[in-house]
Here is the input.
Amino acid sequence: VQLQASGGGLVQSGGSLRLSCVASGRNFTDYVAGWFRQAPGKEREFVCGISWNGRFTECTDAVKGRFTISRENSRNTAYLQMDSLNSEDTAMYYCAAGKLLHYSDRRPSSYEHWGQGTQVTVSS
Here is the structure.
């Protein structure tokens, strides 16, 4: 499956963005979807994951209550709604998909397919 992420940009602290990840090439419902981020000089970290049917989600503590992951399988798209953004959220955001993993799996190595990344910059 090929993934195309979009929706990043420059936003002021306290603002919101919605990232989208469009999948093509394979049946999107076969895959768990996830969002990761990577800031300069840091390792890629798990943000949120969602089960194939969208019923179950998991997010890292740093974004709980502020970020929401969802998916619309009829559109082959996963979303990351990001609210109350702060400077620590500044990073390149990547969407990912994998078949043989649990939606709460936080390891980047568990995901087989990756999008190209979309930059999120939060100004204070």
